[in-house]
Amino acid sequence: MPKLFRSLVVLLALPFVLAGCKINSINYFPPKPAHIRVINVLGTTTPINVTANGVAAWSGLNFEAMTGYQDFNNATTEFAVTLAGSTTTLVSQSYNPAGEQSYTLVVYGPLNSPQIGVIADVIQPPPSNQILLTVFNAAPVGNGLVLGNSAVDIYLTPPGQPIDSISPNFFFITYGTGNVFGQFSSGQYELRLTITGTKTVIYDSGPLTFQSATATDVIIYSRGSAVLANVLLDDSDGAGQQVVANSLLARIKAVNGAFQTGPVNQLLNGVAITSNLAFAAASTYNNVPSGAGTVTFEATSAPGAAIASISDTLGAATDQSIFVSGFAGATTAVALQDTNLPPPAGFAAVRFVNASPNSNPLNVLANNVNQVSSLGTYAASGYMSLASGTVTFTFNDSTTGATVLTMPDITLNAQQTSTVYVVGPAGAVAGFVTPDTP
Predict the structure, then answer these.
(1) pLDDT confidence band for 146 (50 / 70 / 90)
(2) CATH of span 249-338
(3) Mapped to the 3 state alphabet, what secondary structure does 344-363 carry?
(4) Are the CB atoms for 283 and 266 separated by under 8 Å?
(5) Nearest to 139 by CA among 193, 89, 185, 176
(6) Are 356 and 425 in contact (CB under 8 A)?
(7) Coil, helix or strand for 263?
């Protein structure tokens, strides 16, 4: 295993080190510019713009995109982030960059709590046959059991090596922590992340090649999963690669809205991952391989006979809910992309799904306040933030105005994400809530 040189430095929350003038007895050497780039792993698909002292520096930077370096003077500079098309500042921070130093600004976090992190990049490549890794944890993910941002351990091993009996190369990397350095031999590795102190893998790169004499920033971030993380690799010196190193892992949960079928099993590529799931219920999430796959449902009472299937792409480090619904003999499966980043403090994130096969479109009210209009068959609303506490959901037929379902005294927990499903046939619909995060 490569020898690790550990040096943990607290994230630079204060301005960069002041750059002074270099003076000797004869000559004055003026300050030289710093080099700064930006990585966007903010929890939204809307591109971002970044200004420096009010002047556009980077525009239309997409999620998971990485810029090249730009030169900046050794003077206090305020960097501000907005969403493309908006003038509202999401987050800003002032820095005084040191001359000839390279920095990476990481824009990260949920959209309701954006952050700017700083990596002091390695500007000289390591020796031949060596690599340098600098780690930054920008992933607001939990451990699947409790709310909050979990620290991670990092394993860099030869491909395929089990991690059960070895120690991590980096340990207890907390959310928002950066500038954690390690030096290794160049070559091919497998990078895995676990919930700190456990062997619960939340990211698996598969084989990765790190070229000789290369310094690389390893950015850990979220693609919307409550547990799984993803990784960006961005060289600061050496090979020059900028790679989205997608995880081999995804998560899916089953939801049974097939009211005439009874309990169901869910299979992925022919392998059962959820069994005997009752009607009007949801499973927990299961870790599965990311990539293309076929999700199939069968009645538990008739294993081997598919009642519905869907060809699906299970996005790396993402969560999906897949529900089955419809009348017997005409059931269908529908995949939903889940966004399980934490909502603001004091609020819950909620979406609504009309899984009734033949109801009219529905209007959805929370405590008599309209939230969604004309939610059609097999459609899902966007996520909305509702104040935590007790709420009554009312579903009205958007065509007739008649109330078709009332769900009283539903408890919404602060910073929890949930989905409310309407299931069953027109005239006899029912509803249930499934928490998608702890």
Answers:
(1) confident
(2) 2.60.40
(3) CCCEEEEEEEECCCCCCCEE
(4) yes
(5) 176
(6) yes
(7) coil
As a whole-number percent, the residues of the chain with pLDDT over 90 amount to 87
Buried b (16+ CB within 10 A) or exposed e, 94-129: ebbbbbebbbbbbbbbbeebbbbbbbbbbeebbeee
Query: Domain limits of the chain?
Result: 7-247, 249-338, 341-438
Angle at 356 between CA 334 and CA 392, to 5 degrees: 110
Q: Which of 102, 48, 98, 59 is nearest to 77 (CA)?
A: 98
Task: Confirm whether 249-338 and 341-438 share one CATH topology.
Answer: yes
Alpha helices in 199-354 (DSSP H): none
- Does the global pTM surpass 0.70? yes
Residues present in the chain in total: 438
> Which residues of 238-331 form beta strands (DSSP E)?
242-245, 249-257, 264-268, 271-277, 281-282, 286-289, 291-299, 306-314, 319-325
CATH number for the segment(s) 341-438: 2.60.40
The β-bridge relationship of strands 180-185 and 130-138 is antiparallel
Task: Check: CB of residue 292 under 8 Å from CB of residue 269.
Answer: no
Continuous H helices in 301-395: none
245: left (phi over 0), alpha (psi -120 to 50) or beta: beta
Our measurement of the distance from residue 100's CA atom to the centroid of its chain's CA atoms, rounded to an integer in Å, reads 33
Which phi and psi (to 5°) does residue 302 adopt? -140, 65
pLDDT digit string (tens) for 157-202? Answer: 999 999 999 999 999 999 999 888 999 999 999 999 999 999 999 9
Cβ burial, residue 343 (10 Å; 0-12/13-18/19+): buried
**Residues 224-273: pLDDT tens digits?**
999 999 999 999 998 898 999 999 999 999 999 999 999 999 999 999 99
* AA identity, residue 416: Q
Task: Report the SS3 class of residue 76.
Answer: coil
Q: Among positive and negative, which fits the CA dihedral 53, 54, 59, 62?
A: positive
Q: What is the pLDDT of residues 106-140, one digit of tens each?
A: 999 999 999 999 999 998 899 999 999 999 999 99
Q: What is the spatial distance between Cα 145 and Cα 152, in angstroms, rounded to a whole number?
A: 15
The closest alpha carbon to 325, from 340, 310, 312, 342, belongs to 310
Mean pLDDT score of the chain, rounded to an integer? 92
